[in-house]
Hints:
By secondary structure, this protein is an alpha/beta fold. The chain has helices spanning 16-19, 30-41, 46-57, 68-77, 83-100, 124-132, 176-190, 205-214; strands spanning 105-110, 116-122, 136-145, 150-158, 164-171, 198-201, 219-222. Strands 1-2-5-4-3-6-7 form a seven-stranded mixed beta sheet, with helices on both faces. Helix 7 packs parallel to helix 8 (205-214).
Amino acid sequence: MVTYFSNSHNHALLDNKEVRFLPAYRDIPINDQSRILLLSKVGCSISITMWVLELEKRIEAGHLPFLEKDIRNFLQSHSNVGKDNNTSEVLKLCKSLKDKDDAFQYDFTIDESNKLEHIIWVFGDSIRAYEAFGDVVVFDTTYQINHYDMPFGLWVGVDNHGNSIFFGCVLLRNEKIPSFTWALKCFLYFVKGKYPQTILTDQDHALKEVVSMELPNTKHAFCI
């Protein structure tokens, strides 16, 4: 039962420019949803995605009918779509590359739920380059693949001219110490136990601990 109703407001009403920020007024049109998924698939960040949409629509920055967090929520709701299929496809790709070039190496683990837990791959040319220029390697784990919620690690070497040589990639689960341990063991297996003289990494304490255990004779330095 309504006993009393006051039709006066105790705060200023939003003007027309501010109303569009209310959740009830924010919506991502179907065409924009397809565009957002496509841009996300090719690696565009949310800010770049908004910039592209604004340019395509020829509107001023910040005048889309949705916000960055709406795009983030939209992508999150689609993050689980096709994951299992993508895992199957990447494993098929690795197998086909191995069939074409026996020097290509890859390894992976599956968890108790039969989900991909880790995967690492490296091309034959990279292994041969490491045999010649394996004194210094960089293990960069500062990338993050949000779509799969798996940290991405990149191995890079340096030749005698100071040029970077791509070595390999690894996708890891978030439990750092067992993941880093697995990655370093795989690395050493791929290069037939040849330890690098120096390894450069970010200042990750878990990674520092694992390097000291798995690469005891390798000088460990932090990247600037």
